[in-house]
Amino acid sequence: MSKPSDKELDEALKMAIQMREKRMDPFFIAKALLSHNYRLGYLEEVLRAADLYLNMGMDERERTKLLKAIEKAKDAESHTALQEREQFGLE
Q: Exposure string (b/e) for 51-72, b if CB count within 10 Å is 16 or more?
């Protein structure tokens, strides 16, 4: 399956928001799309940070950015799952 264009994704997200606001989401498709889109942003940040870390000779600053991006992604996952998570990171 091909990735939706930016325009297609934007339209789908707008429709998903409307569906949730009108409580017309009997199979939770809009909820799933919105949740996955929210989480995907954090995971894309992890991917960018990991790529930069690996391509910059595993620089310590890039490692710190990668760890922070991973923590944000884990926090987003916990938030969307409505769960608390144990903190082992940089805090």
A: eebeeeeeeeebeebbeebbbb
Q: What tens digit of pLDDT does each residue of 52-66 get?
A: 888 888 888 889 999
Number of structural domains in the chain: 1
Residues 6+ apart with CB under 8 A from 10: none
% of the chain beyond a pLDDT of 70:
90
Q: What is the mean pLDDT of residues 24-38?
A: 96
Residue 13 in any domain: the answer is: yes
CA distance 5 to 9: 6
Domain around 65:
6-80
Q: For the chain, how many helices (H) and strands (E)?
A: 3, 0
